[in-house]
Amino acid sequence: MRRMKAIALILVSVLLAAVFSGCASKDSTVVMKLGGIDVRYDVFRFAVLTERAALEAKYGEDAFSGEEGVSSEIKEELRSGTLDYLKGIYAVLSLAADHGIGPDDPAVVEAANSMRASDVASAGGESEFLASIREAGMNEYAYTFITKAGALGDELYYAMLNSGEITSDEKSVRAFLESDECIRVRQILVTTENRTDERARELAEEARSLALGGEDFDALISRYGEDMNMFGSTQGYYLMRGFMYREFEDAAFALGIGEISEVVKTPAGYSVILRLEKDAEYMKNHYDKLSEDYFTAQYSLVCEERAESLGITDSSVFDDTDILSIN
């Protein structure tokens, strides 16, 4: 659930020139550098459209098409969200380079080629596939950039485990899981899907008020909650830093056992969190899953730390671009 996405830097494919030659000049324009690495316009555009779609889901489509125009707050949220998205991408590039992992490594190339073949088959053919990625806001370069991401991220993840950058010995991991760095929580999540942001908050506040009044929390999850993970298990989440949104984590770790949080706003919606005692028997029987969660959380933290440290240079194009004009 973390915002971070692992994305890989690649070379321009031959198909780019053949299919997108009409816009190649603009697409290859360097918008800025992050950590000294060029950010091309076509990747920047995809990041903008991705963040815009997230904001439309959050605030409604009229946030960008209402009669009163786009508010300065939403415009700034789009701009800052796009930059955060790009920093997440380029943090992975930077870390991968530190570990000697490149986009042309055989494992990365093989995985990307396999994904492309699968996507072409799912789309029903090459022309249909190309049409689908255009509709998603990508050209061939951006698509290949994105599909290499998962593979490069996987290689980085295992390199960090193998190098010891992520501690993996069982004794240390069990000690971490048993410490206060790992807590157990359940949540009532109210999303903005099919309702306004204001209404989502009202419902979350209503659920919290009932919980504070003594109503059964699980019953409130059934009535108000929209996190499917809460319905599959009464255990909830065994939460550690790096596993979920930072706002959620900050609120959860501030709770004592049995305490209920204020309504917490995250990109997923509005959450009411209950902290619970950890179940020792469950933890013993599900060590493999919990250890994988620990590894993933530690990986996310390293990536997030690198993202926050990335310097922005040569950003005149980014600074001068009207982000609302990108479509």
Describe what is shown at a glance.
The chain is an alpha+beta fold. It has two domains: 179 residues, no CATH class; 116 residues, Roll (Chitinase A, domain 3). The protein is 57% helix and 11% strand.
Structural class: alpha+beta
Q: Radius of gyration, Cα only, in angstroms?
A: 22 Å
What count of structural domains? Answer: 2
Mean pLDDT: 89
Number of strands: 7
Approximate shape: globular
**C-alpha end-to-end distance:** 27 Å
Major beta sheet summary: 4 strands, antiparallel
Low-confidence stretches: 1-23
Question: How many distinct helices?
Answer: 15
Helix content: 55-70%
Write the element-wise H/E pattern from the N-terminal end onward.
Answer: HHEEHHHHHHEHHHEHEEHHEH
Q: Which band does the percent of strand residues land in?
A: 5-15%
Task: Write structural notes for this entry.
The chain folds into two domains: 14-168 and 302-325, no CATH class; 171-286, Chitinase A, domain 3 (Roll). The chain contains 15 helices and seven strands. It has helices spanning 14-19, 24-27, 41-59, 72-98, 106-123, 126-135, 140-163, 170-178, 197-212, 217-224, 229-232, 246-253, 280-285, 287-309, 316-320, and strands spanning 30-34, 37-40, 182-190, 237-240, 264-266, 269-276, 312-313. α4 (72-98) packs across α7, α4 (72-98) crosses α14 (287-309) and α8 crosses α14. The longest helix has 27 residues, at 72-98. It is globular. It starts with 13 loop residues before the first helix and ends in a 7-residue tail after the last helix. Mean pLDDT is 89; it is low at 1-23.
